[in-house]
UniProtKB/TrEMBL annotation:
Belongs to the CWC22 family. Residues 16-39, 681-716, 750-803 have a biased composition (Basic and acidic residues). It comes from the Eukaryota. Its main location: nucleus. This is MI domain-containing protein. Residues 402-518 form the MI domain. The keyword Nucleus applies. Pfam families: MA3, MIF4G. InterPro entries: ARM-type_fold (IPR016024), CWC22_splicing_factor (IPR050781), Initiation_fac_eIF4g_MI (IPR003891), MIF4G-like_typ-3 (IPR003890). Residues 1-10 have a biased composition (Basic residues). Keywords: mRNA processing, mRNA splicing, Nucleus. Involved in pre-mRNA splicing. One of its GO terms (cellular component) is catalytic step 2 spliceosome.
């Protein structure tokens, strides 16, 4: 044996026969670790795990089994069985799992998927409900299976309400609507709320107690819960008063106090007596005492800031509501198991049953019904087309009479106004027949022995439902006001109170009163009674202060200008007296102020008119005077030249005066009195000048007509008739000094005689122009006055000539 030859291991019997070894040698893993003892332990554990894996492989090889494929249902069940929902899985893989699991609707996997979808849908709908969209949200909520998911709905509503307390009335309204169709849902919500309040009260959890009691209070207002539960909660809170319990009781009472005042006045009074006793005891802090005092003030104000049902949430009729009487101390069935998923073996049957319930609630028909309705509608259209082709026109108004009969019977058979409105809206009417419905409501109201608020509430609801009804009632107001004189007193009173209710509630616009003209000429006794009763109804409903403020509004005054006339003092005075007599005196303040200032305005207008007329008259008079002076100078020159050429002869005094008067009568009378121009002065001695100045400056004396009238009365009844003017002129004693000729030279005569004659003629001319002539009597009186004055002047003239 050489050195290069290696030493070999002797062969075993198995190797000689060619069989494999009985065991497989596994190399021990090596782990790097600082601590040698821990490194040895880790290596042993890793070796044991590797050995177990190898043994499994050997067992599978021996049995000849293969690894099974991917099981979708098992994988999905593994994901959903854990509380946290399993590990994260990509959406595509999760969608594939859901499709694979949803092939069988009766399988637990499909029911679990539908349960998750139901929970998400109910939670989303509850979270987005508010006053504006509650009517649209309710059908969506009924489309989900609320019988199966009533536990989910109760938990979602309670959670959303506790997170946002101001929206509690909205959630209570939602529960009230669902309670009318599915009472078990409303009962479950109320039961869980009472149970939650009891647990929170025992744990002294003030926040949960406050939110729960607020929700219960609004359910009591919506009549989902009986008022007995509210009184029991108040007794529990006030039995042993503490700061927290009194604070919760005050908040609860502010929400439910208006309802208890209306439905349980005695119990409400006892609750406030207990509040007053707690306040007098002084066992609570000053902050809570102040809260109780504020509650007392809220009660005095009749809960104006806390109404029973807020506006926009009165969606359930009182007769349709179902009230649950659950006691505070009784055993409650909370049914917590409804919050979690449970396999339903009759899942498909229950779903079909709820679909039938949904169709009954929402009024949705099946496809067969829809197809049948389409066929019937097509048939109706064909019939209408045939009728139109034939050209048949019904002038007997049979359809209109039938419509009025249906409306009348519907109104008379209704128990309350809400039912009447609900049924009237279902009456089939053609376009343009809405006014017939309004007229029938008013006629039914007028036929009653006394006015009933039922009709006012019906009209108010119609006006607030749609603008079409609002316009129809406004048109009816104008029609009935113009024809109100046709109705007897009782019907007139009912109609006026009906329209007063609509105006007080702002159901129709106040612009309809534009047709009212409150004057003595434009109103009748019937219309005045109508206005009086209508305004009285409005004042009773709104209050005198409110109606006065509304009438002072600019827009209302613009529309109701006929009720407050200011164009004529007579109309203004009539409107003031009328409105004051019916108790609306404060409304007339503006008209009284206008009537007080009216004389000043009239005087200013008259003064302005007179100034305008005087300015125009002065302009015209100045032009007339210029033309008269020119014509006078021409005529005088012409007459002088003619008389110089003729031989002189003595004339009687009457013809020149008569001619002068005829010329004056032909000339048009002047528009205004103007002082006559004085003749040119001649210088004379001082005494004569003073005498002339005094006579010239003083105005001519007028004879007192009253004295003449008295003298005529004292004269004998058979007095001789007056002589004519020409007869008087023939007497020589009556005319001692004849007037000079017009063409005669006046240089030889005394200048004063000429001036006196001139003044006398001017005065007579002015007197004749200012006073109207009444025949020969007035002319004889003027001539007689002139003759009486002439001898004295001649005497003075003679004295001056002797000087």
């Amino acid at each position: 044996m050489t050195e290069n030859q290696k030493r070999k291991r002797s062969t075993s019997p198995d190797e000689v026969e060619g069989r494999p070894p009985k065991s497989r040698v596994i190399e021990a893993p090596r782990v790097s670790d600082v601590d040698p003892q821990r490194r040895v332990e880790r290596e042993k554990a890793l070796a044991a795990r590797m050995a177990a894996i190898e043994l499994d492989k050997l067992d599978k090889e021996k049995d000849g089994r293969k690894e099974p494929g991917f099981d979708a249902k098992a994988e999905f069940a593994k994901l959903t069985s854990t509380r946290s929902g399993g590990v994260y899985m990509p959406p595509a893989r999760l969608r594939a799992l859901q499709e694979a699991a949803s092939k069988d609707k009766a399988s637990p996997e499909y029911q679990r998927l539908s349960w998750d979808a139901l929970r998400k849908s109910i939670t989303g709908i509850v979270n987005r409900v508010n006053v504006q969209n509650i009517k649209m949200v309710v059908p969506e909520l009924f489309s989900e299976n609320l019988i199966r998911g009533r536990g989910l709905f109760s938990r979602s509503v309670m959670k959303a309400q506790s997170a946002s307390l101001p929206f509690t009335p909205v959630f209570a309204g939602l529960v009230a609507i669902i309670n009318t169709k599915l009472p078990q849902v409303g009962e479950l919500v109320l039961t869980r709320l009472i149970s939650q309040f009891r647990r929170a009260f025992k744990r002294n959890d003030k926040i949960i107690c406050h939110s729960t009691t607020t929700f219960i209070a609004h359910l009591v207002n919506q009549q989902v819960a009986h008022e007995l539960i509210a009184l029991q909660i108040l007794v529990l809170l006030l039995e042993r008063p503490t700061d927290d319990s009194i604070e919760i009781a005050v908040g609860f009472m502010r929400e439910v106090g208006a309802f208890l005042t209306e439905n349980s006045p005695k119990a409400n009074a006892s609750v406030y007596e207990r509040f007053r006793a707690v306040l007098n005891e002084g066992s609570i802090s000053h902050r809570v005492q102040y809260m109780v005092e504020v509650l007392m003030q809220v009660r005095k104000d009749k809960y104006k800031d806390n109404p029973i049902i807020p506006e926009g949430l009165d969606l359930v009729e009182e007769d349709e509501q179902i009230t649950h009487q659950i006691q505070l101390e009784e055993e409650l069935q909370v049914q917590e198991g409804l919050n979690i998923f449970k396999f339903d073996p009759n899942y498909v049957e229950n779903e079909e049953r709820y679909k039938a319930i949904k169709v009954e609630i929402l009024g949705e028909g099946s496809s067969d019904e829809e197809s049948g309705s389409e066929e019937s509608s097509e048939e109706d259209e064909d019939e209408e087309a045939v009728e139109e082709k034939e050209g048949i026109e019904d002038r007997t108004e049979t359809n209109l009479v039938n419509l009025r009969r249906v409306i009348y019977l519907t109104i008379m058979n209704a128990l309350n106004y809400e039912e009447a409105v609900h049924k009237l809206l279902k009456v089939q009417m053609k376009e343009g027949q809405e006014i017939e419905l309004c007229n029938m409501i008013i006629e039914c109201c007028s036929q009653e022995r006394s006015y009933s608020t039922f009709y006012g509430l019906v009209g108010e609801r119609f006006c607030k439902l749609n603008r079409v009804w609002n316009d129809c009632f406004e048109q009816a107001f104008v029609n009935y006001f113009t024809t109100i004189h046709r109705y007897e007193t009782n019907r007139l009173r009912n109609i006026s109170r009906f329209f007063g209710h609509l105006l007080a509630t702002d159901s129709i616009s106040w612009a309809v009163m534009e047709c009212i003209k409150l004057t003595e000429d434009d109103t009748t006794s019937s219309s005045r009674i109508f206005i009086k009763i209508m305004l009285g109804e409005m004042q009773e409903s709104m209050g005198l202060k409110t109606i006065t403020e509304r009438f002072k509004d600019d827009e209302v005054q613009r529309c109701c200008g006929g009720m407050f006339p200011m164009d004529n003092p007579k109309n203004t005075r009539f409107a003031i007296n009328y409105l004051t007599s019916i108790g609306l005196g404060p409304v007339t303040e503006e008209m009284r102020e206008h009537l007080k200032n009216a004389p000043k305005l009239i005087m200013e207008q008259r003064r302005a008119m007179l100034e305008a007329e005087s300015s125009s008259d002065s302009d015209s008079d100045s032009s007339d005077s210029d033309s008269d002076s020119d014509s006078g100078s021409d005529s005088s020159s012409g007459s002088d030249s003619s008389e110089d050429s003729r031989p002189r002869r003595r004339r009687s005094p009457s013809p020149p005066q008569n001619r002068r008067k005829r010329e004056d009568s032909k000339s048009p009378p002047p528009r205004a009195r103007r002082p006559s121009p004085s003749p040119p002065r001649r210088r004379d001695d001082g005494r004569d000048g003073d005498r002339y100045r005094s006579r010239r400056d003083s105005p001519p004396r007028r004879r007192d007509r009253s004295a003449d009238r008295n003298e005529r009365d004292r004269s004998p009844p058979h007095s001789p008739p007056h002589k004519s003017r020409y007869d008087a002129r023939r007497l020589p004693s009556r005319s001692p000094s004849p007037p000079p000729r017009r063409g005669e030279n006046i240089s030889g005569r005394n200048g004063r005689d000429v001036r006196d004659d001139y003044d006398r003629k001017r005065a007579d001319d002015h007197r004749s122009k200012d006073k109207p002539r009444d025949g020969d009597k007035d002319r004889d009186r003027d001539d007689y006055r002139a003759r009486r004055r002439s001898p004295s002047r001649e005497r003075y003239n003679g004295r001056d000539s002797r000087r």
